Amino acid sequence: MTDLTFAPDQYTVHTLTRDGQTLTYRAFENIPYALHPDDAAFQRLSIYVPEAFYAGQSVHGYTLSTAPIFLPNTVGGYMPGPQEAPGVNFLGETNATFYALLHGYVVVSPGVRGRGMTNADGQNIGVAPAALCDLKAAVRFLRHNATTVPGDTEKIISNGTSAGGALSSLLASTGNHPDYAPYLAAMGAADERDDIFAASCYCPITNLDHADMAYEWEFHTLLEYHMVTFLPPRDGEKEPRKLNKDGLLTAHQQTLSAQLHDAFQPYLQSLPFWTGEPEAELRELIENTVLASAQKALDAGAPLADDPAVTAWLTVDGGQATRMDWDGYIRFRTRMKETPAFDALNGQSPENELFGTAHIPSQHFTAVYGDESRADAHIIRMMNPMTYHSDTHATLASHVRLRHGSMDRDTSLAISALLYLSFQKAGVDVNLEYPWGLPHAGDYDLDELFAWIDSLCA
Ligand code: DHB
User: Fold this and answer.
1) Which pTM does this prediction carry?
2) What is the number of structural domains in the chain?
3) Which residue of 28, 192, 292, 371 lies most exposed, with the fewest beta carbons within 10 A?
C-alpha cells in the first residue's frame, strides 16, 4: 500500500522524436493518487518533465521549480480517460503532452474513471462524480507533495476536450467545495486543497441539465439530423473510424423540440447575467463571437469571401466580416443530434450512463421524464460548473480559456457562451472564441494555448 508520498528517485529517461522535433524527458509513471481507489491499476498518474531541467537548464524561462503544471485529461464521451505518455493521442496525432514538454511545462497525466467501468462486484465505478473526483485527487496528490514534485503546484493548468473540457471547467469551478469531500474521503485522496490556477476547455459538453433546451433553441428549425461518431482506430488502422447515422425527427420528437425550445426562455431569464433582454443578449454574444472568428480567419488570409456556402450567411465587405444571418449559419452547420440531444428517449446516451449509479446502468436527468426515474438532483447539480460560480465555498480558478469550434454541433454554442458569462459574472478572467471552421475537437491551437499560459505564468 502507498502513503501518497512522491518518490523523486523512481524515474526513467526517454528520448522521442516526432514531427522533426526531439524531446528528452524524465518519466515518473503509474503513481497511485488515492489510498482506496475503485480501480487500483487505473487510478494513477504519471509526471513528465523536460530532462533539461535536471541539467540546471531553463526552457522558455521555466525551471524545475517554476514550470507550470499542465494537467491534460484524455476523457472523451464521458468514457474512462487513461493516462497518456508523450507520443500520440487517440486519433494517432502527436499529443499535447509532447508539445507541452517541448515548451517547458511539467505534464501530469492522470487516469480518470468513466462510464462503463465496473469493479469485481459488477458495480459501476465511473458514474458521476467519479471522473471529477479523480482529477481532484490528482491535484491533491500534487499539493501533498508540493515541495518534492517538479513544477509549481500553484500553477496547475487543466486541459480537456468535450466531456474532458466539461471536467476541466468543473475542476476550475469547484475548488475545495464540500460537496465533493465525502467522495474524496472515501477514495482516500490526500487531505489538501484541490483548486487550480487555470483551465483550458475545448467544446465543453456541460450544463447537461439545460443542454437539451439549448440544443433545440439553436437547432429547432432543422428536422433532419446527421449524426457522426468517431471510433478510435483499431490495431493496424491509422485513421479513426467514422459512423454516420442520418434521419428525421419523429412527430413526437418535433413536439419535444418545440417544448424544449420554449423551456430555454425561462431558464435564460433565471440567470443573473443580463442587462437587457436575455435571448437577444445571448444571440448577440454568439453572433459577435462568430464574426470575430471569421475576422481572425480573414486576417490570416482565408478566402471566406470566395466561398458561396459561407457568403450565403456571412457578409464580408472589404475584408471585414460585418454581419451574419443566424438561420443561415445554423443551416450551414446542420443538426447532429436527435431530440432530446443528451437525455435520450431511450435512456442510452453517454450522459444517461454518466448519471447512472453503482447499481443502475443509466438514468434520465431532465424534467422531460418526471421525477421517479431521474438521477439524484444533487449529483446533477454537482456536474454543472455553473452551480458553483456564486458559491462562496468554492475556490474558482483565476483564468479560464474556452474554445468551441464554429462548426461544432455536438452541443449548442449557447452552452459555452453561458459558461463564459457565468465565469465572467464570478470575476474570473475568462475568454471565449469559436475557432473558424473547426468541428467538435480540441488541442488544435497549442501555440495559442501555450502563449496564453505563458502570459499568465511568465
Ligand atoms: C462527447 C461528445 C458528445 O456529443 C457527447 O454528448 C458527450 C461527450 C465527447 O466527445 O466527449
Assistant:
1) 0.97
2) 2
3) 371
